[in-house]
Amino acid sequence: MPRSRTPRPALRALAGALPRRRRLPLRGSTVLITGGASGIGRLMALGAARRGAARVVVWDLDLSAAEAVAAEARALGAEAVAERVDVTDAAAVEAAAARAGAVDVAVNNAGVVTGARLEDATEEGIRRTFDVNALAPYWLTRAVLPGMKARDRGAVVVIASAAGLVGVARQTDYSATKHAAVGFAESLSAELRKDGSAVTALAVCPFYIDTGMFDGVRSRIPWLLPVLRQEEVAEQVLDAVEAGRTRLPLPRAVGLLAPLRALPTPVFDRAMDLMGVNDTMDGFTGRRPAVDVPAPDPRVFAPDGAAR
Ligand SMILES: NC(=O)c1ccc[n+]([C@@H]2O[C@H](COP(=O)([O-])OP(=O)(O)OC[C@H]3O[C@@H](n4cnc5c(N)ncnc54)[C@H](O)[C@@H]3O)[C@@H](O)[C@H]2O)c1
């Protein structure tokens, strides 16, 4: 019997039918990052400078922290500016984007989380989560996309979450906004492909990262789903931008969610429960505000608690 052979021409035809990846070297590029004052935003700003970006634009609510990041980026050789921009303010975003000039890579990174169960969530918290995580990417992208399309070069990055691919207990607001972010990036990517544009849209879907935003969370299966190191996430996002990718699940196991969705829903739900996905938030505290706790006055507090 003749041995079955790999249908090479068929595979070649299939590969040829796939959209070609549009590589985008960061060297010489202008990179704008929202929420760039801390966490992975700060590290992506510095990583872009290290990779030779010509200009790094850091937006955040915290101007002094954003300025410190810009100074670090300048020390790495990039031109860098910081601005206080509230990404939920569409008019402010449009004006700041005009001041930023031509942007090659726009990273929608600013994000917030409440960690509240639905019954405990406040209307203000829910609205804010949607404003920052789901709606802000529209305002920035609409401001920078025409320029990118005119130059036929650019990448819109949306830092979504693994919670944009699966619902998680205590994340009815957060997970919903990250599903919106994934849908936004995927639909934008489809529009750009349809237009034959070289501009790309990348949805980043990480599991928890050790930035402090999700302090207190834990993974039941850290060998498969570890809490990610922020330095690694920042580098992987920049790699994905340069490679022209459109989806980045982190770690790789997060990419298994899509095929697992083929299971009957009760089986999928049970699998998530058994993997501890819905217990991850049990110990969530989030980033607690840094408070200066004065050292106890030794004249007042003796080790045994008695006043001296
Ligand atoms: N930390 C995680 O476990 C994790 C996991 C998956 C996805 N993400 C996503 O990654 C992104 C970065 O998170 P991080 O962990 O670095 O958190 P972070 O809290 O360190 O950084 C978020 C930044 O966004 C800024 N910001 C918040 N609201 C803003 C607004 N209205 N306008 C401008 N800036 C604003 C904050 O000031 C902060 O500097 C977020 O979108 C987050 O949802 C985080």
Automatic annotation (TrEMBL):
This is All-trans-retinol dehydrogenase (NAD+). SUPFAM superfamilies: NAD(P)-binding Rossmann-fold domains. Residues 29-205 form the Ketoreductase domain. SMART domains: PKS_KR. It comes from Micrococcus endophyticus. It comes from the Bacteria. Its EC number is 1.1.1.105. It is an enzyme of class 1 (oxidoreductase). The keyword Oxidoreductase applies. Belongs to the short-chain dehydrogenases/reductases (SDR) family. Keywords: Oxidoreductase. The keyword Oxidoreductase applies. Gene3D superfamilies: NAD(P)-binding Rossmann-like Domain (3.40.50.720).
